Amino acid sequence: MTVDMEIICVGNELLIGKVVNTNASWLGKRATALGVAVKRITVVADVIEEMSTAFQEALSRKPKFIVVTGGLGPTFDDKTLEGIAKALNRNLSVSKEALDMVKAKYGEYTKTRNIPEDELTPARVKMATLPADTTPIRNPVGTAPAIRADLNDTVLVVLPGVPREMEAIFEESVAPLLRQAAGDRGFFELSIYAEKIMESVIAPLIDTVMHENPLVYIKSHPKGRENQPHIELHLSTSGKPSDNPQNRLAKAALQLSALIEKTDGEVVKVESQGQV
Amino acid sequence: MTVDMEIICVGNELLIGKVVNTNASWLGKRATALGVAVKRITVVADVIEEMSTAFQEALSRKPKFIVVTGGLGPTFDDKTLEGIAKALNRNLSVSKEALDMVKAKYGEYTKTRNIPEDELTPARVKMATLPADTTPIRNPVGTAPAIRADLNDTVLVVLPGVPREMEAIFEESVAPLLRQAAGDRGFFELSIYAEKIMESVIAPLIDTVMHENPLVYIKSHPKGRENQPHIELHLSTSGKPSDNPQNRLAKAALQLSALIEKTDGEVVKVESQGQV
Question: CB B20: neighbour CB atoms within 10 A?
């Protein structure tokens, strides 16, 4: 059975297009590679009401995992923990464990850089103020701890928005959870690049190959124009090693290539990404 | 009053992280520049059930505009028009106007490139098969027409996922609608880059300035590390020219800079993007 996940990114900067959402694509790629299916990505503003609504909607769909990014820092617009508290209808309070993590960071900073301010100001305590019954997760490269909540149907993880921190925490503390849930299921992909054949002419060929290979998903990505065609055909499948997903992929790719060549198209390149 | 918009992007390639969602950030930036507030971005798979659910949820929030991208092409996985039909509970049928657009494109291709296949294959007719009571929109650079549906509370626009086509149709046919709805409201932004002051130390300074300038939104983007701080403070506001939004922004920026310098931080750069 497929293990599914949703991604929710909090941040006005994503909505106004100031920042391109590379966190979502990074998480999508990593989760997919670990055998987990990402079903939805949602981006909302730094507004408690809007994020808590989005959290509740995602929870109601009962994915196995929800990964939230952004809004864990010390400034007023970092409201994600308040949004989680509201969505889960839980109180916020200072977590001793999280506070120790934050305190240790500022202790380190003071030691290594001779910065005088190591006191726990309200902005710093805020990063350790968590919704009830959530667990802080160590941030190996930054200050704000991430958090984890084990709910009935879903494991909810909240990561910082700074990519370097988000990625480090994901690799250290989230990837193992996904890997364990997905078992030895892997994701495999392969791309065929075709020229001299229009997307509208390839369309029925894809239908034929997908019909004969129901576990392989084929998506066409036009890179040129319809009348100067250069098309990437992306084939993907997932499964356990015992199911030979790679063979399945190779068979579909060979069939599709042969059909393209027979229809006067030209296969100019085949790229196997293997397992991401 | 603010005119609001949601963006919905359809495509497995976005969920598996194969493609970074630059369509969403491009649309977010353009809508914001036109004075429209983007409230939510949703990414869903090429699955009719999942996209129609996302369309219905967005419609129920009654934004003035919903812009959908992706899934208008000729292949089997281009299912967005079916998703729209299901969400609106309308039938699909071939639109003569859309079919003429598609036919004309293939006519052109045949003439200019000596391509024999100008017949209307099922894959091509599919691009002209629209939900009832929707209008095709001219695609100046590609084949598949975009579509528009004028609903009770919302104007729903569906654009192709190919960025070049999406952008051209937006500029030609969607931007004028947004501009008209937003009136002469504009969006203004300015960034202050500070060093030698930690984000947790800046946090209360931002609070002070935002409290005194309630129409200016300030967001901090840490670019360095908490103990080697390099922080972008992004100030933004929107309004009609008669409200002098630019002055409002300049005043807040001056206050914030002064507070940073007073707290031993260093303002290393001020960048005014003006109106995007």
Answer: 18
